Amino acid sequence: MAGTDDAVAADDDALYVLTAVLLTPAKFPSVLGDDYPEACATLDLAPLAAGYGLVLGQDGQGARWTVVVDDVSLVAVAIASWDCGMEYDLSPDERTVVAALPGWPLAVAVAAPGVPAPHDPEPAPEDASRTPLAPPEAGAWGPAQRRLGADEIALQWAAWRGQIDDGDFATDGTQEAPPTDAGAAPLTGVRRVLAEARAYVDTPPPLGRVRSAFASGDARTLRADGPGWSLVARTDDIAFVLLDEAPGEVLPVGRGPELPALLEALDKMAVRPS
Questions:
Q1: Of 115, 6, 117, 2, nearest to 67 (Cα)?
Q2: pLDDT tens, position by position, 152-187
Q3: pTM (global) more than 0.70
Q4: Residue 2 clears pLDDT 80, i.e. is over it
Q5: How many CB atoms lie within 10 A of CB 105?
Q6: pLDDT of residue 112
Q7: What is the pLDDT of the chain when averaged over all its residues?
Q8: Which residues neighbour 270 within 8 Å (Cβ) at sequence distance 6 or greater?
Q9: Could you tell me if 22 and 28 are in contact, meaning their C-beta atoms sit under 8 angstroms apart?
Q10: Do the beta carbons of residue 266 and residue 222 sit within 8 Å?
Q11: Which residues are CB-contacts of 92 (< 8 A; sequence separation ≥ 6)?
Q12: What percent of the chain has pLDDT over 70?
């Protein structure tokens, strides 16, 4: 997290920076979409190859703002510094600002001191039709919540992996379904996801649908999304699938005879952080 001094907070036109995230083909807030172009479209941005930085903060009246900048390197350095526990004064040059959007697309747990509590700004007359950005509802289930669930699994892989007994998998790698209609439906959904993921290898999907990130050892963490589904996997291990039609369920897929080759092929075509 980043902060500024009280003088900055007292300036109604200044932004008290709370946090920032990258919006690039290889790393973007998945809550915004299944792929990079969709995430950009959610914010009415052109999908530039270099991407953007999203700076989240409050103005002097406490209003929430998401400031979009095209200085990706500056935002990346700030994020890396904060992740290392170092202070970094993120102050983008006004010339790098692409847009200032009301609201926050992500939940932010902190607030700026010395200003009113976070709230949506009053819309300007020319933007009266724009709905302020807001994080998805925690108690609901839909594409955004499904993607956030996949994010959590990727971040807490060891914890989720530790709950799985490899002996529960069928010979094809899918987990044995209980003898109920509800159990059979997720199993059918998992097989559909694997088929659609295989199709990505032959027909590349929109940029960012398949992403590869660092994992321990020589492995990679893979993330793939599609219409109604998300997949998280490690190239040396199993995969987890989340479905829009299975609220809150996390469906494991064992190595089996086909998953290793699929993960290897997806990793080769995936977008990677530079």
A1: 2
A2: 999 999 999 999 988 777 666 777 655 555 567 798
A3: yes
A4: no
A5: 23
A6: 94
A7: 90
A8: 210, 211, 212, 220, 222
A9: yes
A10: yes
A11: 53, 55, 67, 69, 71, 74, 75
A12: 89
Question: What's the order of all strands across the beta sheet hosting 97-102?
Answer: 16-23, 52-58, 64-69, 97-102
**What confidence tens digit (pLDDT) does each residue in 24-69 have?**
999 999 999 999 999 999 999 999 999 999 999 999 999 999 999 9
Q: Would you say how long the chain is, in residues?
A: 274
| Tokens read off for 207 | 């940029």
Domain locations along the chain? 6-127, 143-269
Which residues does residue 6 pair with via DSSP β-bridges, in sequence order?
none
CB 67 within 8 Å of CB 97:
yes
* CB distance 112 to 57 below 8 Å: yes
CA–CA separation, 11 vs 24, rounded Å?
A: 31
